[in-house]
Every structure is written in C-alpha cells, then in structure tokens.
Amino acid sequence: MELVILVPCCFFLVALIKFLYDYLWVPLRIQHMMNSQGIKGPPYRFIHGNSKEVARLEQEALSKRVALTDDIFPKVLPHFYTWINRYVIREEFCLYWNGARPELGISEPELIKEKLSDIGREFLGNGLLFIAGEKWAKHRKLANHAFHGESLKNMTPAIITSVETMLEKWKKGQEGREIEVLQEFRLFTSEVISRTAFGSSYLQGEKIFSMLQKLTIIMSRNLFKSRIPLIREDEAVNGEVNSFGNDFLGLLVNAYHDSDEKNRFSLEDLLAECKTFYFSGQETVNSLLSWIVLHLAIHGDWQEKARREVIDIFGNRNAHLEGVAKLKIMTMIINETLRLYVHRDPHFWGDDVHHFKPERFAEGIAKATNYTAAAFLPFGLGPRSCVGMTFAMIETKIVLSMILQRYTFTLSPTYVHSPIFVLSIRPQHEIQVILEPPHHNA
C-alpha cells in the first residue's frame, strides 16, 4: 500500500522539480548573468514573464493621442519605451521575457545588420520570411525571378488597371468630399496583389486568399489543401494557359510540379508563399500609401512639387516604368515617410527627427544616413531584405503619380493622429482627406 502511494508521489515531485527548474531557476539564473554584463530589462515574472505588462501598456497606449511631430515610440512600442527608460543601462540592449523564454531587443545598427545578415539562423514557419538554409535559398530564387526584370514589367499593367478602377470610383461622387484613404488603399493593394499573383480580378483572387487564411485551421481537409494548384492545372488541361503561367502563382505551381526534387515545392511551401506574398504585399504598401497621402495633404508645398514632377515626366498619360525611374522628388518623399514610421533615432537623424523633411534624401540614402546602412531599414538588410522592395516602390510611385495627375487633397479636420504597430506601423483610426481637381490641367 505504501509503495502504491509512494510511486505517484515520486513522479509528482520529479515533475514539480522539473517545472520549477524550467520556469524559475533557469530564468532567474539567465537574468542574473545578463544583469552582471550590464544588459537589463524588466524583471522576470513567474510563468508569464512580461506578457501581462506588455498587454497593459499597449492597452494604455491605444487611448493616447499624439501630435504629428511627437515621438511615436511611446505610442507604437510602449513596453520597450518604458523598459528602456526605467531599466536599461546599455542602450543597445534590452532583456525581456516571453513567458519563460528570454528575448533580447537590440537597437545598435551594426548589431541589427549582423543579425539580418545571418541566414543560418532557424526561424519558425514555412514562408520565405521564416525559413533558413537550402530551403530558404530555393524559395528566394523563385521569388527573385518573380520580382525582377521582365516579370516586374509584366506586372505594371495590372497595377495601372487597379489604380484606374479605384480612381473611377473616386470620380463618381467623391470629388469635393471626404474620402477615407486607408480603406481605399486596402482595396487597391488587395486587387494589385490578386491580379499580379493570380492574373485575375480582385474578387476572384479574394476568394483564394480568404481560403488561405482559413487553411491554418483546415489544412487536413484535402478539398481545400489541393485547390490552389488545381486552379492552374484545370486551366492547363483546358488549354487556357501555356504551362501554368508566368505570374507568381504560375511560378509556384511550376515549382510544385518540378521533376527535380531539389527544386520542388511541397503543397505547404506553396500555400505559405502565397500567404506571405499577399499579407506582406497588401498590408505594408497600404500603410505606406496612407502615410504618404497624410503628409502630402498636410505639406501642400511638397504635394505641389511632386505633382509638377509627375506632370513634367508623364503629362496626362499614365505612369510607365521608364518615367517611374526618374521620379526623384517622389523618391525623397517615399523615403522620408518610410523613415518617419520606422526610424526616429536622433543620433542618426538629428533634432528634427520627428518632422517631415524629404530634403534629407536629396543626395540619396547613403548620404542621408551618413553611410550607416543599418540606420535605414524599411525593407530589411542583407540576404533577408524584402524581395518585393522594387515591386512595392514601383506600385507606390504609379498610384501616387496617377492620383496627383487628377487630384489635390487636403487633410480633413476630423483626422486624429494615432499610429499603432500591427504587423507594420499603421493608422489606428481612419485617414480622411478632401479631394479636389488640380488647380491646373497640364
């Protein structure tokens, strides 16, 4: 009888010791070692780490308003702002706890550069953003092919068609009235991604991407798992396409059917890349366009400079790749917007770091950053830099050019400035601008 009681008690005791070792002794030991090296941060809290504090600080930040020239760091990353000011001795490091797992926040550009250049690190997930080694190289090679040279040229008509669809809607009753650009650009970027990925309209592509979002839950259901490659397989059998097409989906399905096992994509690879392409391409460009329009609506002088440049290069014609490459002022405006909503370290950008000043980039990015590459990272750095960077810049320049040709815009007095961090730095509230025809028709 005593033995029967003793055995489960021993198991319980061993489990308890293991639990306390993992969730108490190890974290406290790591914290002590890091603190002794001057690397500090919020103290470890048993089991949950700092997650409760993060949730509380983020909730408090959501209720706060900021002015356009205020520091947005306390608003978008309130926990890091609080910890750095309260605990940190060495400013380039901040130790914090995700449950019982220690994580290290770094802000020193050279350390960031080194980390982003380390392609041997293991990442979680299956998309291009989160894989490593040979698999990453295979996926990156295909993505490079999809977003460079002739492929980019072939995507331009899809971008222009999507802009025309958006502007046609604006023309029907929106002139002289407020328009909410965040939602407008969300629809626009979704259509661009759908057209360039699927060679189809937004409504057709939307069904597929909606399915992709649900696949994380229903991956075991063969009907949905196999539908994406079958879309192109059906078309090929019916003679509607040659091979599986040259758009992004076509390249992925070709890789799915590749006879060389080293180059072949699994179905999970294909789905992961579709999701990565859609969510990163839609969310980031949507936020960028919204912030640019906001600042051009406020800074009418820069809006007019950009408009004159667009008219000088394109006249009343639609934008084209050759002209897009000549848009120097617009490039300055885009870079300054990317800087404002990622990079606000006064050590690199000066005391006017919170002000919109596109002239910083008049002589290029290298000069603006004093040749510190890691001081400006809107698209990452090194081998893991954003493969769609050129595509995003072309898309942004085309849509801005076509808007500036047709409209002037001012900021609505109802706008409330409140940036938040959700995948990217995006507006918490709507961005309302008032559209008017341009004062001149060149």
Helix content: 55-70%
- Determine the CATH topology of the largest domain: Cytochrome p450
Rg on CA atoms, Å: 25 Å
CATH architecture of the largest domain: Orthogonal Bundle
Highest CATH level, the class of the largest domain: Mainly Alpha
The total domain count is: 2
The CATH H-level superfamily of the largest domain is: Cytochrome P450
Mean pLDDT: 77
Low-confidence stretches: 119-131, 213-243
Q: Mind describing the biggest β-sheet?
A: 3 strands, antiparallel
How much strand content do the residues show? 5-15%
How far apart are the termini? 98 Å
| Coarse shape | globular
Structural class estimated from helices and strands? mainly alpha
| Secondary structure: number of strands | 7
H/E element sequence? HHHHEEHHHEHHHHHHHHHHHHEEEE
What strand order characterises the main sheet?
3-7-4
Discrete helix count:
19
Membrane topology: Single-pass membrane protein
Organism: Gossypium darwinii
Pfam family, one: p450
Protein name: Cytochrome P450 CYP749A22-like
Structural summary, described in words:
By secondary structure, this protein is mainly α. The protein has two domains: 17-107, no CATH class; 128-436, Cytochrome p450, CATH 1.10.630.10. 57% of the residues lie in helices and 7% in strands. The chain has 19 helices and seven strands.
